[in-house]
Amino acid sequence: MGELVFQRYLLWTRISLCLLLSASVAYYVTASIHWQIEWDTGIMHYVVFLMRHGFSPYRYIIDCNLPAAYFMDSWAMHVFGVGDLGWRLYDFTLLAVMTVSMVVIALPYEWTGGLLAGVVFLLLHGAQVPTQAVQREQVMSTLILAGYAFLFTGLRSRRPILFLPFGLLLGLASSVKPTTVPLGVLLLIMAYFPLRKQNISITPYLAFGLVGAAVAILFNVQFFIQYHDWADFLVTSNHLIRYYAGIGNSRLPELLHSLLPLKYLFLIATGAVLAYGNRATHPWENWERGALILGVLFGALSFIAQRKDFPYHLYVFIAFLYLWSAIEFGKAFRTRTIRHVCGLACLTVGLLVQVALSDMHMAHVETNAMETSALAGDLSRLGGSTLARQVQCFDMVDVCFTVLNRMELIPYSTFVGDYMFFAPRGEQSSVYYRNMMWNDLQERKPKVIVVTNAWFGEENSFDKLDQWPQLADELAKAYKLTVTRSFGSRAYRIYTLIGAQLPQLKLRGSP
């Protein structure tokens, strides 16, 4: 095969790949554009709503997220809007930034490998159902990969100024999850070696990187100054964050099983074999490969360190694994050796198998839109806006706080979630926060209490109430069960205060 014919063959293969990937992206957008806000996004939006109504995080809002998580969500709500469509646009934007970053990183090798990695990640993300959309790990993964793109481009073009956004983005990612701090430090240390080999001073690169990180730190400082809540953050760190870190944890074998299923082992094995064959022609190629492998290892260690077998905790690992392996596949694809066949086969498997499977999973995604609409309707019939400061949610992140946010209702108490009250079976709930909640209930009782069967670390069950007999007795004595609704495995109950002046709901039971 002549060189011209081979180059045309590569061109048409790339065009075909791009068309198929574009169709998959279009499918994801059209299949998910109607999704409604669910899970942690509803929590984050509600916290931002409360902050805008004068409630200080950590002092009045009992939640264990770090400042950058609130900052990023507040920024997204300001840019894209507070509703469901704005949430979808934010999700699409994060995925687009991640994919573009992967293409930039893969550009000197085979840019379609970066595109494939980004789209496969997008579809894996979509197949996880709406509960995983715009999770903090997705935000963190996007920030890290965008930072990598600036880091690589800065070193390739010898432009120290690009280390400024690198430091800023890694700093913001560290403010979402502090496990990112070692990654940023190691990358700055690693940058010294390729610069030293060419007798280039690292000083300007290091200075710009540190300035970017300092700007991220200033965001956090400004946040604490604005809300006067540094001392309250320390209290939250001592009680809630430490408590959360100690409950619902999986054993190491379970974590490794989720971390290394067969499809990821295949990527690691084939990527490693091709990496051996793809000998670098330039020293910087080995450095970049090492930085990408560091990203893979960081993602794996971050997942294990968090000790919770949540799918979105794997996002950093998955993103870097797909990017690194796709680059190795792409490099082999561009050669005129037997490695070309291997690279093409791996790209084809990634496209036709992984993409197709993700598309099929996404076609059967279920949402909790019916549950959200039903609870919003029930609370509206019970008084709607008159229930301000009268609704107490005992819900993990399932539906209740999303509904309060939609209705713009200030809650009875600002505990975000109920995991501090109902630990998994065999584990101790937080006595500190239970006492705080109980004292509030004795001082002034809310007119409405919503209890969902969502239970942190356990299958959905109202048995979680048995863990707090004191609260169960309070519900039995002072409240009446007004509504019980179920939606497959999910369900909620509404209790109304005996003697409270509320409209009478005629419906009871599942719709």
Proportion of residues in extended strands: 5-15%
The radius of gyration is: 25 Å
Briefly note the structural class of the backbone: mainly alpha
Q: In what order do the strands lie side by side in the largest sheet?
A: 1-2-4-3
Q: How far apart are the first and last residues' alpha carbons, in Å?
A: 67 Å
Rounded mean pLDDT is 85
Portion of residues within helices = 55-70%
Count of beta strands: 4
The SSE order reads HHHHHHHHHHHHHHHHEHHEHEE
The figure for the number of domains is 2
Ranges with pLDDT <50 over ≥5 residues? Answer: 507-511
Question: Biggest sheet, open or closed, and with what strands and sense?
Answer: 4 strands, mixed
Number of helices: 19
Structural shape: elongated
Could you please describe the fold and organization of this structure?
The chain is built from 19 helices and 4 strands. The chain has 2 domains: 3-238 and 251-362, no CATH class; 369-497. It has helices spanning 3-32, 39-52, 67-80, 84-106, 111-126, 136-157, 163-176, 181-197, 203-227, 230-246, 252-259, 262-277, 283-306, 315-333, 338-362, 369-381, 400-407, 431-443, 469-478, and strands at 391-394, 448-452, 479-487, 490-497. Helices cover 64% and strands 5% of the residues. The termini are far apart. The longest helix is centred in the N-terminal third of the chain and has 30 residues, at 3-32. The chain has 511 residues and is mainly α. It has a 4-stranded mixed beta sheet. Mean pLDDT is 85; it is low at 507-511.
